Amino acid sequence: MLLAGKTVLVTGASAGIGRAVAVGCARHGADVALNFSRDQAGADAAVAEIEALGRKGIAIQGDVADPETAKAFVAQATAALGCIDVFVNNAGICPFHAFLDMPVETFERTMRVNLHGAYFMVQAAANQMVKQGDGGSIIAMSSISALVGGEYQTHYTPTKAGLHSLMQSVAIALGKHNIRCNSLFPGTILTDINKDDLADVEKRRYMESRVPLGRLGQPDDLVGPTVFLASDLSAYVTGASLLVDGGAYVNLQ
Ligand SMILES: NC(=O)C1=CN([C@@H]2O[C@H](COP(=O)(O)OP(=O)(O)OC[C@H]3O[C@@H](n4cnc5c(N)ncnc54)[C@H](OP(=O)(O)O)[C@@H]3O)[C@@H](O)[C@H]2O)C=CC1
Ligand SMILES: C[C@H](O)[C@@H]1OC(=O)[C@H](O)[C@@H]1O
């Protein structure tokens, strides 16, 4: 039980990677608070899975694009679970769209959810960890897209590079408090975020063909890397990033 006795907060945990990570952390012994914005049924189902594992779980609604959500989530989660040991910034959107006619609202919403939201969430979690005085681990669900571009992701990839940069800077700012800050870089993971994009069979086959391990990722593929960064196994790891992409990034030819 690598996370026994720890409390973990996960944003965007009603579906996909966030939900898998929330339940996975509970499987490794943690109590978990999860944030979601719209999918109450998904959030409730995740809490039920966490409770079935014998751990405490709580779902707290809030749009991360609103900076006020951050303080409220951290305060309510701390009141319910007692403290925060691990914070996973996962909530994100990727509304695929071409560059030349990108609607201002799509650009701004993507920035607000993925990057502004992360900034204020990480700040609120860090303040609580500093107050507790016992260190902590902050993990950002960045992306392989922090390193490479996407034709229909010109609004999205900068948020993922920004998240990684945020982790590097807060690793420096929070090191004196023994709060470690790291990024995960998932490749293409099969979730609702890319369901429409990958409904194009040709595109899906092409994406699969780029992965040396021969398959696209599943949300559960992020559990082990998250548990590692959350646990004391990574006590001397901060400011780092870990690709979880089946080898896609290094596959030039
Ligand atoms: N899938 C992939 O290939 C990859 C994903 N990632 C990143 O992983 C993270 C999770 O993505 P994934 O699981 O695929 O996506 P999903 O669409 O499956 O899940 C997204 C989650 O984020 C929540 N969410 C969305 N907007 C908000 C908001 N404004 N406030 C709070 N919660 C919100 C959703 O909850 P609700 O519906 O309740 O709003 C949902 O729980 C994202 O940051 C994404 O960029 C990175 C690399 C690859
Ligand atoms: C949503 C995409 O499938 C996914 O998002 C990422 O961050 C990856 O780079 C993939 O493009």
UniProtKB/TrEMBL annotation:
InterPro entries: KR_dom, NAD(P)-bd_dom_sf, SDR_fam. Residues 6-193 form the Ketoreductase domain. Its EC number is 1.1.1.378. GO terms for biological process: fatty acid biosynthetic process; rhamnose catabolic process. Pathway: Carbohydrate degradation; L-rhamnose degradation. It comes from the Bacteria. Coiled coil: none annotated. Signal peptide: none annotated. It is an enzyme of class 1 (oxidoreductase). GO terms for molecular function: oxidoreductase activity, acting on the CH-OH group of donors, NAD or NADP as acceptor; quinone binding. It holds the Pfam family adh_short_C2. Keywords: NADP, Oxidoreductase, Rhamnose metabolism. It catalyses: L-rhamnofuranose + NADP(+) = L-rhamnono-1,4-lactone + NADPH + H(+); L-rhamnofuranose + NAD(+) = L-rhamnono-1,4-lactone + NADH + H(+). Belongs to the short-chain dehydrogenases/reductases (SDR) family. This is L-rhamnose 1-dehydrogenase (NAD(P)(+)). The lineage of its organism: Bacteria, Pseudomonadati, Pseudomonadota, Alphaproteobacteria, Sphingomonadales.
